[in-house]
Protein: ELWxxDGT repeat-containing protein
Amino acid sequence: MVKNINPVVSTTSNSNPSNFIAFNNQIYFTATTGTTLNGSELWKTDGTELGTVMVKDINPGTANGNPQNFTIINPTTMLFTASGIDPSNKDNDGGNELWTTDGTNVSNVVDYTGTLNTIVWIENLNGTAVLAQTVDQGRELYTSDGTKANTKIIKNINPLTASGVSGTSYIKNGNTIYFQGNDGTTGASL
Structure:
């Protein structure tokens, strides 16, 4: 054991480490302290007890940030989804939104209003993230470099209020991402 993240003594309590990814010579993952201090949050380790620390309490207090969908888009930028509060944003609604880290600093990329924000997948395509995200117009494809200015919808595939990205699975093959889409006219297709 590298570090006892959840020191609560119980047969049902554990830190539930998951979603491991190597980034900047460290391992990032999701874990919980199992106490009244923090929920499931972003952690990192260099393989030592002292070097195993919480990076950020994304959803402060006992609420869960649930960071997941870790995707490295370049040597200094990792994107992921989480449900949390960022004091630099105005509405602080939480929601499952896009977050970024350089390994030290963690921030929300864009804070969309409403609580129906969801991102079902993120993929690195030549140093840019492509993601399926639900905002006001349903689930559509977005692109991001980890900055607010360059996070935008690629195309509103289904211009009605329905989702243009109708499934939750995708596959990347070379420089192309294949997914199930629906333009509102021809139905679900590749």
Summary: The CA atoms of residues 10 and 34 lie 10 Å apart. The longest strand covers residues 165-173. Residues 71-189 form one domain.
